[in-house]
Amino acid sequence: MRRAVVLVSGGLDSATALAEARAAGFDCYAMSFNYGQRHRQELEAAQRVCDSLGVVKHVVIDLNLRAIGGSALTADVDVPKHRDEATMSSGIPITYVPARNTVFLSIALGWAETLGAFDLFIGVNAVDYSGYPDCRPEFIRAFESLANLATKAGVEREGTFRIHTPLIQLTKAEIIRRGVELGVDFGLTHSCYDPTPEGRPCGACDSCVLRAKGFVEAGLEDPALSRR
Question: Which of 62, 68, 149, 177 has the greatest CB tally within 10 Å of its CB?
Answer without folding.
Answer: 177
